[in-house]
Amino acid sequence: MARTRVIFFATVMIGLAIALPLAALFYGAWQLSVREEQDRLSEIAGSTLARTQLVYQEVVQTLHQSDAAGLAACSQDHIARMRALTLSNISVEELGYFQQRRLKCTSWGVVEGEVRQPRAHFTTREGVRLNLHVRPIVSTGNVMIAMQAGAHNALVDPARLVDVLVDPSLSLTVATRDGQIMAQRHAPDPDLLARVLARDGAGREEDSFYAVARAGDWVAVATEPRTQTLQHLRREQLLLLPFALLLTLIMIGGIVWVSRRRLSPRGELAIAVGKREFVVHYQPVIHLPTGACVGAEALVRWRRPDGSLVRPDLFIPLAEDSGLIKPITDQVIDSVLDELGPTLAADATMHVAINLCADDIRTGRAVRVIARKLEGKELQAGQLLLEATERGFIDVEAARTTIGQARAAGHSLAIDDFGTGYSSLQYLQSLPLDALKIDKSFVETIGLDSATSSVTDHIISMARALGLLLIAEGVETQAQADYLRARGVDFAQGWLFAKAMPAADFLAFHQQRRAQFGACPSRIQRRWPADEQDREI
């Protein structure tokens, strides 16, 4: 089930790894295109505004020069002067002279007939009056803008104000500060323009982008249809596509790497640790002389979400190599105290054996964990027998320190699977251990004519000589039990008596065994008294 979920999750994440960069590509490209377009429109609007201000300043200067000439009105010199100023300023199409609000002469010559001065539509802050819709009387032609200062006015072609190089799709508008249109190039929608003139900066309005620039008496507006931005969008997409593809490949690679780790045995084990999928089964320990049940060995099992159990020999070595054995040990301790704690507190003769890994023997970590978890509980520390394989005692000095801490806390200690690893009398002679467990591989040779059949007798003799209690593992036949009992082995466990079972079944077995054989006459005790322990350690 967990594997299926990981595969499903990885598939979904790969889909997202493909979709998200592409979505980010389109979104990022659109944002870049919009920003680029708005920046471009802002630049164009600013350039148009600057162009308008320049034309206005040139015209005002020309008008001032006309008034300052001091020539007789409409004389040949006056007309020649106005003609020269017109020719020298490309923004001015025609200059005129007004007297008593009537046009008397222009840069073309004396005006015949009566031409009255046009009404001003707008007056600048400098007092220059503007008429925005004037058609020349003498030269005729397009509608002009009339700018008047003093007695002279100048006609300006509106196209001069928007004479900026732009795309044909782009619209330009120049208006007065109160919104009156002065000049346009590719006129935009009037309703759109009316809304935009009331705003500042760049933005989007319906299907168009706009930019507004303001300064003094003038406003410049640049607008462009949204469709024009799509051309920039395609360019940005092509630029961003390699980055999106690279990001997709990196994300897919990361997902595959993580998924493979999670689908690996180590990854699955780490998930199981996080979800606390480990349960404890208890294998009864029997007192061979009487048949009474003195306790149990706590054996961890990995229960998968589908209910199946994984054998310890399939995951314990991996857990030890990966460092995951420590949290598993902590879960075992929690389970023992939760499931058997009340029974242990009520029966001081009962014990439970807990297996420690080599690193816990080296560092003493598990001893401290147990001490912390026993705080406030009524059971005795001596009811928890700590077991470790020979591998845990390779570093003799570190093991001696941990054993000292464990014994000071009240625990007894046993060496497990003796003879199957780095066997050495050093462990038995120099370390204050209390019990030795005979491995199943030696027990099953009892009564057989094999090369190792005599090893069991040697182990028993050696343990007896050192005063160690003996616990035989893997007892499956009555002949094996009789053989061990005859040679003074104290305790045994194996399928002859019962398989490892859940806590509820073990408690029922313990009660049934107690009713049949009576209370336990003894349990695993320390071999080393406290005073001798202090002296030896």
Automatic annotation (TrEMBL):
PROSITE patterns: EAL. It holds the Pfam family CSS-motif. It catalyses: 3',3'-c-di-GMP + H2O = 5'-phosphoguanylyl(3'->5')guanosine + H(+). InterPro entries: CSS-motif_dom (IPR024744), Cyclic-di-GMP_PDE-like (IPR050706), EAL_dom (IPR001633), EAL_sf (IPR035919). Its EC number is 3.1.4.52. It comes from the Bacteria. It is an enzyme of class 3 (hydrolase). The keyword Ribonucleoprotein does not apply. GO terms for molecular function: cyclic-guanylate-specific phosphodiesterase activity. It is found in: Cell membrane. The keyword tRNA processing does not apply. Residues 262-514 form the EAL domain. It is a multi-pass membrane protein. GO terms for cellular component: plasma membrane. Keywords: c-di-GMP, Cell membrane, Hydrolase, Membrane, Transmembrane, Transmembrane helix. The chain crosses the membrane at residues 6-30, 238-258. PANTHER family: CYCLIC DI-GMP PHOSPHODIESTERASE PDED-RELATED, CYCLIC DI-GMP PHOSPHODIESTERASE PDEF. This is cyclic-guanylate-specific phosphodiesterase.
